[in-house]
Specification:
Arc Repressor Mutant, subunit A, 62% helix, 214 residues, 9 helices, Tetracycline Repressor, domain 2, DNA-binding, 2 domains, homodimer, mainly alpha
DNA sequence: GTTTGTTAACGGTACCGTTCCGTTTCCCTA
DNA sequence: TAGGGAAACGGAACGGTACCGTTAACAAAC
């Protein structure tokens, strides 16, 4: 796309408009759901005319799917040489901090909620958010399995489903939820999954890992 | 409530109207979500005047929460003397059949999706649907744990979260899903949880268990 | 000056929560 | 047995708001 091809004639599109629209669409989607989001409100919130939206996306579902897709943050980058248990416990605090945020919690819930009626949105989330994280995690699980750090009968995919699913389930549960509670919960899940808590080397501190969760 | 207290004067409310309204509200909620459901449409679908709805429930959220609450089916009744593994594998087929139904799948997704913006609906589901099932299952898990049929470090609540969460996660995943696939998946989850597959006694057939799921 | 982007305004539809109808169904008293 | 009162019923309409998808007119970039 950065290829030579001549620039199309006429006035080029404002790239800032794309970003503003996607951001506004995501905010409204998180707060009001698909059915409660209208192109008109997205346009108003983005400070843009309706036609500016319609020109780029043909409808609500397509727009929201694009917004979800654009919302993914930096791809995960797990250290391949660190044992799974060390990674898990080391990242637990940062993980908890991240997924407990109301905005994240609400977005996950919304995406889940649309899976039946608007599969495109769920598919966008799954492809651009969930799958990359699973792909990054899988080799660590397989290595742990090969080294005997996990029960022999472990199926990596099912294990990931169970861990992510449990966290998701916990997030969706009614009632307040703070980061400390969630951290404890994460550790319980790791333990239940069969991971041994690593004994922290003296002076070693938990190493934050950016962007994770179900 | 069946107590003596005199019947209030005037025409009594039509109980059929309650049922029709709740049914219509649940259908519309499943199909269009909270934000896409209007009292007006509920009334029309139920063949009832708007006022008949407003007389009973003060607003949309309250109505839908009541509809979700009323949609719960017969309480589970697990045989306390059967080993957990036998119950799990015996009920897997019926379970799979049940939770794969589009209506169930969609309802779970919708409820999950409202957990952030409309906690009352999620709370109704949790209290009247999830909790009773967990309460029925817990003693079986504790017994299995005591008998050594589960890993010693097992935390019953976390285990239930992981099993239910995994299934939920699988339900929300995009793409088609048939009962046979789901049955295999359920069995994978049971195995991953640490349950040993029971060797079926000759002539013994899977025993259906009514109404389960996340 | 041609192409495209942006904005403002269009008519039409749906829903809101409320308020009237005229009717129906029950309880209580005369 | 005959009435009268109280409440619920379906249906229609209220003014007000929001959104739909499109079109016409102005502005900007090439």
């Amino acid at each position: 796309m950065t290829a030579p091809g001549r620039r199309p004639p006429g006035r080029p599109r404002d790239p800032g408009a794309d970003a503003a629209i996607l951001r506004a669409a995501l905010d409204l989607f998180i707060e009001h759901g698909v059915e409660g989001t209208s192109i008109e409100r997205v346009a108003k919130a983005a400070g843009v005319g309706k036609l500016t939206v319609y020109r780029r996306w043909s409808g609500k579902e397509e727009l929201i799917a694009a917004a979800v897709e654009a919302a993914r943050d930096d791809p995960v980058d797990l250290p391949a040489d660190t044992p799974l248990a060390a990674v898990a416990w080391g990242a637990a605090a940062a993980q908890a901090e991240h997924i407990v945020q109301p905005r994240f919690r609400a977005m996950v819930a919304r995406v889940l909620g649309t899976s039946a009626s608007h599969p495109a949105i769920m598919a966008a989330y799954w492809t651009h958010y969930v799958e990359p994280r699973r792909a990054a995690l899988r080799p660590l699980i397989e290595r742990a399995l090969a080294e005997g750090a996990l029960p022999a009968h472990t199926d990596p995919d099912v294990l990931m489903d169970m861990m992510a699913g449990a966290v998701l389930y916990r997030l969706a549960r009614p009632g307040p939820l703070d980061a400390a509670t969630m951290r404890r919960y994460l550790e319980d899940v790791y333990a239940q999954a069969g991971l041994e808590r690593p004994r922290p080397a003296p002076g070693e501190q938990s190493e934050p890992e950016r962007g994770g969760g179900p």
